[in-house]
Amino acid sequence: MVSRLALLLALPLTAACAPMAPSGDARAPISGQPVEGALFVAGKFGNTLTKVELASGETAARVASCANPHELATSPDESHLALACYGGRTVDIFRTSDLGKVASVDLGEGARPHGIVWHANGDIYATAEGRRSIFWIRDPLGAAEAFEYGSGQDGTHMLAVAPDGRHAWTTNLGSRTVSLIDLKTRRAPRSVEVGEEPEGIALADDGETLWVSARGSNAAFTLDPETLAIRQRIETGAFPLRIVVRPQGDYAVTSDLADGGLSVIDTATGELDRSIAVSSPAEAEARTQVTILFSPDGERIYVAETTANTIVEVDFASGRVLRRLPGAGGGDGIAIIE
C-alpha cells in the first residue's frame, strides 16, 4: 500500500506556485529583536545544501550535495554541519561558513542514513535505515571511527541521544516500534510498539520523558525513557511527521503534514495547548510540511515546506507566520546557528 506521505511527496512542484501573501516575503521585517545567524537547508529533490542568512532572508550559498539528502545537524561550536545522505551510504560534513565539504564518513553498503544528531560530546550519531541500525561516529572531524549498533527493526528512521551519550532511542517506521539502544554495553536493544508509523522523536532536556509522534495515529506519545512504557497519548493534527521540544522545555510541538498545522502540547500536563495554522488544509498537500526546528531562544519555529521550496518562520507566542524563506530543491532537513 502506498503511504499518504508518498502520495503527498509525489505531487508536482507546480502545485505550490501560487502567489505569496505579504507574510510570504522572505525580506519582510520581523517584530522584536533583529534575527542573526543562518539557516541551512537540505534540498532532497535537488540534491543541494543551502545557507540562508536570517537577517536578510537571502540565500548566501548553495552547493551540490549527495543524493537525496535529508536530516542536518550542527557541531557544538557551530563551525560545521553534518548531512545524512539518505540516497547513499555516507554522512558528509561541511563548514558552516562557506559550505565547503571537509569530510565524508562511509557507513557501508545500503546504509541510507537519515536521522542525525551532533552531540554535545562532539560525536555524531545517525540512523542507517537500510542496515536496520544506528552508527556512533567518534571524532568526526579527526580519525572518524564509526561503530554500528543493530536495532533489529525495520525502517530505523529518526533518533534521540541521551545527554550522557550512553543510550539512543530510535523510531522504526516499518516495525511500528521505538527502540532503546545501549551504546556502552551493547546489550540487546529493547523495542515496543508505539501507535501507527512512529516517526518523530525527541528527548526532554532533563532526560525524563521521551516524546514520539506517530503519523499514522494522528497522535503524540510520552514514554518512560528507561522502560519505554507509554505514559500518555495526546491527539494531534493530521499526520504528525516530526516532534520537537522547545528549548525552555515547556512545550512539545508536532508538524502536522496533512493539515498544514502545528500542534502545541503543554509538557507539564501532556495536554494539547493550541494549534498553529502554518498553511490552510487546502494548501497542505501543495506545500508538504515536513521538518520543524526551534530557534535557539525558543521564540521562533522554522517549518520546511518541501514541495513549495520554502521554509516558514513562525512567531511561537502569537502563532503568526512572519515570512517564508528560500528552501530550494525540496527543502527537508534544516539546521540553524545564531
TrEMBL record:
<dbReference type="InterPro" id="IPR051200">
    <property type="entry name" value="Host-pathogen_enzymatic-act"/>
</dbReference>
<dbReference type="InterPro" id="IPR011048">
    <property type="entry name" value="Haem_d1_sf"/>
</dbReference>
<dbReference type="InterPro" id="IPR011964">
    <property type="entry name" value="YVTN_b-propeller_repeat"/>
</dbReference>
<feature type="signal peptide">
    <location>
        <begin position="1"/>
        <end position="15"/>
    </location>
</feature>
<protein>
    <submittedName>
        <fullName>YVTN family beta-propeller protein</fullName>
    </submittedName>
</protein>
<keyword id="KW-0732">Signal</keyword>
<dbReference type="InterPro" id="IPR015943">
    <property type="entry name" value="WD40/YVTN_repeat-like_dom_sf"/>
</dbReference>
